[in-house]
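Journal club side-thread
Mid-discussion, someone asked how the predicted structure for our own chain would compare to the paper's figures. Pasting it here so we can look after the session.
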Amino acid sequence: MGILTLNNVCFSYGKNPVLKDISYDFEVGKMYCVTGKSGAGKTTLLSLLSGLAQPTDGSILYDEKDIKKIDKYNFRSKYIGVIFQSYNLLTKFTALENVVLSMDIAGVKEINKKQKAKDLLLSVGLNEDEANRPILQLSGGQQQRVAIARALSYNPDIILADEPTGNLDRETENDIMNIFRQLSDQGKCVILVSHSPAVAELCDEIYELSKI
């Protein structure tokens, strides 16, 4: 059994079914792509995986424990790192401040959080000057790197990214995908939600959702 398992997961909005009998298994050290046409339920599945919504039926297990029994705040701030399509960075803060704040919220015990944040940003390709810039002074690719560093700031087992290259040029897309590959090689479970065939081809496994 993997680090994250879906057992016959269903989800409906009222009487309208979105997902039906979804059973996926995600392991550490692998990179996955969840794909499908518009309306197939990719966004809904992301919400379920991140604990923002609960299945109508079926179960989702993290490390063999039903996430319904895990405190949702702890789940999202310790075990799973979410990278949003729109980045969701605090635009009044610098890149460095965004990462430090993430550690504060997660209760990370780190003597020098500022240095840890610098190291994380450097690991995803941002130098010290870029780390100290306000978010709105960074390019889309740089903001994506900040979002990845923020997700890594509390060392989660699982990285979940929603359309992580959707707004990027091909060269930057390759750079970002290389970062995700490095993370999976380091033992993270990386789950990408994407409609891009190029992204899917770079993953170890592809799960395709079909519209009901």
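Post-session note: The domain at 31-42+73-209 is CATH 3.40.50.300 (Rossmann fold).
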